[in-house]
Amino acid sequence: MDVSDKTEAADHSRQSERKSWMAVLARSRHDELDEIVARFGGLPAHDVLKPAETGTVMVEARAGGTGRRFNLGEATMTRCVVRLTDGTLGFAYALGTDRRKALLSAVIDGLLQSTDSPKLREAIVALGRRQAEARQLALRKAAATKVDFFTLVRGHD
Amino acid sequence: MYVAVKGGEAAILATHDLVAEMRRGDPAIPELTTGQIREQMSLAVSRVMNEGSLADTDLAALALKQAQGDAIEAAFLMRAYRTTLPRLGSTVPLDTGAMAIRRRVSATYKDLPGGQVLGPTYDYTHRLFDFSLNGATGEQPATTLADTPLDTRMPRVPDILGAEGLMEPETPPEGDPRPFDLTRDPVEFPADRDVRLQALARGDEGFLLGLAYSVQRGFGGNHPFAGEIRLGEVPVELVPEELGFAVDIGDLTITECQMVNQFKGSKHVAPQFTRGYGLAFGHAERKAMSMSIVDRALKGRELGETAAYPAQQDEFVLYHSDNVEAAGFVEHLKLPHYVDFQGELELIRRLRRELDERIAREAAEAGVLAAVTQ
Lengths: 157, 374
Hints:
heterodimer, A: three-stranded antiparallel beta sheet
């Protein structure tokens, strides 16, 4: 493995880490993010490059799940881009129309890239854990409705 | 010629007040919140998202409140609002195989990997009134929890048949082209599958249900099996240009139906099963099932079948399935047609006058003739 391969692998792991916190932020509520930001001394200084804006995305799907692409319909989405004082860009994209959440998510995305704050990281991981627990709970409720078939004894031999 | 007339402003303002009062109903009864509609009328919310072609449970709940529960009026509100929003892009095609399953049943295989998961359904209820719902109980219904959660990845049933080669494959065409968007470009006929699926996805549930029923009763000659119906949450991904990698933007609740149909084969194709596909926002099982039956009926041309029935004719189905358009055209008849009607009135009067004159003239001529022959 030469140097450029190593850098590429490091980039890749950083990107996958970033993708997972962005997924957690996208599933959060703004009061949860407000609470986290407050714990870290409020919103840090930042420039808003693209103010939180609500628009739509066309949701695509595939015929039969695997075939030709088609447009299922639109969904609302809100996005925001900020720049922290050290120049780091923070981005947010989430389904829905919550502009406060988009701003907070973009700032947190910037902070997680620029600062090495284990506490902030841990706060987002904890948020992700709560979301995963809710998913597990839903999957356990569904699992309780799974059918156990049993064969009835037949009358003839 | 159009003749512009003015008037009615005061009457229109008064009707706005009156409809607001009617929407509110008896002020002694507490007002509904949109949160209550979103949480407790969620199947109506799903319908409005599908026919309004905009996935947003909060907006759909607001639309239902504002439209007094009229699903088509609510869909109209969603469509109108959508036009005010910028389009920020297209998502990566949904992977329904990655769905967090809440319900998944198959009528074709009893023992399928992952199992039959009944989920939340009215299918096994007795359809007897539960009068206890008349009052607010304030109780949280108890749900049963299994020790082990469901598998996070369950195979789709048609893919199981596909592995045996007995199922018509669903693969993207060469180059995996961008789908047609009927909100941007005019539809032309014959319409391709991507156009048809988009139109069906936003089509009226009642219209598609009626068409699907007609297919089952013999006006379309298919014998469908519900290969699989699944409901659950699917992650949605977007690749923003400025980032260049896929970002997960949250989950959408989705209902999918894969209908399995017989196909006798043709000169070039061996007998195999063919599929119909239905996909909908939210929990919308009847819609997804109807859509999948009509999708299969509309595939007739590609399979060399004769289009003998309404459900098999793309122009008929696609032009009449959109309830916002249909309601607009039917209901525009309520608007003033005073001048048109004045024209019709004059025409009918003239024709009747001419008829009367002809009868009188003929009677007079007959009288003259009778006098001459005497």
